[in-house]
Each structure stands twice: as structure tokens, then as C-alpha cells.
Amino acid sequence: MKVKKRHFLKKKEIKKIKDKLDEYSEIISEDSNVEIAYTTEFPLILVNKEPFAILYNEKIIPTLKAIIKTNIKPKKKVIVDMGAIKYISNGADVMCPGIVKADSKIKKGDITVVIDEKHGKPLAIGFALIDGDEMTKRERGRAVKNIHYVGDKVWNLDL
Known about the structure:
Layout (H helix, E strand, L loop, with lengths): L2 E6 L2 H11 L12 E6 L3 E5 L2 E7 L2 E4 L1 H7 L6 E4 L1 H7 L5 E2 L3 E4 L8 E6 L5 E7 L3 H6 L4 E8 L10
Parallel strand pairs: 6-9
Antiparallel strand pairs: 1-2, 2-3, 3-4, 4-5, 6-8, 7-11, 9-10, 10-11
Protein name: RNA-binding protein, containing PUA domain protein
GO molecular function: RNA binding
């Protein structure tokens, strides 16, 4: 992934982004330098020269580095067993059998953070394909569409 061009954002544009980030708006502090970077794949929001959000299908998704660095506790999360980690960290969608626990607040289409059972660390972030209550009840099928995961192009992007 290469950055084609980038520029700093105005305060008005930053406010719009923070509003769209909703529960994750804390990843952008008032004194941060905020830029938009247009890459070969999708635009990124850079905070102090680090990728902190992805613009994906007109939605703004926080990156895992942003969640980890700002210590935000995601409200909508899915906890997966240790057997699922290998697949998720290679870009696979989260499957129902690998889910140990899912927040009941999760609705289809919500931004969902995938967390490992043992260490409690974020592994991936994506969109819920089904409601949270259904995720643990189903024995087969996909539950979360994996958009960004540890070790992907955004994670390894060096600016």
C-alpha cells in the first residue's frame, strides 16, 4: 500500500470525522495533527503521522493501533478462542464456532472489535454480519466481516 497524496484537515473537517467515529471519537485529541492520506487502496485518517482511522464504504473505522494507543475499551466486541487467532490474523472473517462471547448490543452492520480470549488484546476490527445474541447461538457461519487485522497493510504502514 502506497500513499499517493495527503494533506492536513481543517477543524470543521476534523469535527465531522469525530462525529462519524461516534464511540471512538476519543482517538483524535484536540491538540493532534490530523491528516487525510489517499492510498492505493482506501483513504486513511492520520493522527500525528500514524494511521488512526480507515475510510471504508463511507464509514470511518478506527484502526487497531488507535484503539491500543488510546486505551479505548470497545463497547461492541467479540471475544474469540485461541484456535481462531491464526485465521483471523491472516485476514479470515470471524466464524461463529470460534466466538466465546459477544456483546448483546451488537447489531448487524455495527463496527465490531475482535478480542482474543487469553490476553484481552484487539486482533481485528470489522462489521457484524449478524446480531450479537445470534453469534454465540449459531454453530456455523460467518459473524464478523474482517476489515483490518494485526499484521495487515494498515498495521504495517510506515510513513
